[in-house]
Amino acid sequence: MGTGKSTISSYIAKSLNRKVIETDKYITDKINMDIPSIFDEFGEKYFRDLESEAIFEISKNKGIIISCGGGSVIRDKNVSFLKKNGIIIRLIATPDTILNRVKDSNERPILNGHMNTDFISSLMRDREIFYSKAADISIYTDNKTVEEISKECIEKATYFINKIHKK
């Protein structure tokens, strides 16, 4: 969360004339509730179940860009669904950068009451094994423009795809 997924996926989608689907928006549109309300009313497990269902449905499509929430890859089945028709690009930012990007948001229930770099660092450490295992490509976003990050994503994804097709 806060690494730039929504911004970068939208920019890349426009650049490549592709459709982008954000899993969080897909979920909120489907059940007509915002993410914090889902967490408050039903809890994180319920949200993660909705997230898995959404990823399963969305990942059947080809030629689209999927922007997943920060916790999407903590379930192996989500990673499998996503890799079936695509590659996973991990965007990385420092806890300070993330805090700076999300500090004014109330749409991040995991951070409610924990809007500080210590908590973000801890969350990143807890999820690191999932992120590193899932990612086909990792890109650092600190001190880079949207254009620079997007260009790097496209270049690395193209290289990765060409490498797979040569096998």
Commentary on this structure:
This protein is globular. The chain has helices spanning 5-16, 23-31, 35-42, 44-58, 76-84, 95-102, 117-134, 146-166, and strands spanning 19-22, 64-67, 89-92, 137-140. Helices cover 60% and strands 10% of the residues. The protein is mainly alpha-helical and 167 residues long. The chain has eight helices and four strands, in the order H-E-H-H-H-E-H-E-H-H-E-H.
Secondary-structure blueprint of this entry?
Blueprint: H1 5-16, E1 19-22, H2 23-31, H3 35-42, H4 44-58, E2 64-67, H5 76-84, E3 89-92, H6 95-102, H7 117-134, E4 137-140, H8 146-166
Parallel strand pairs: 1-2, 3-4
Features:
mainly alpha; 167 residues; two-stranded parallel ribbon
Which structural category fits the helices and strands? Answer: mainly alpha
- Low-pLDDT parts are none
Q: What is the tally of helical segments?
A: 8
Radius of gyration: 16 Å
Spatial shape: globular
Note the quaternary state here: single chain
Summarize the structure.
The protein is mostly helical and 167 residues long. It is 60% helix and 10% strand. Helix 1 packs across helix 8.
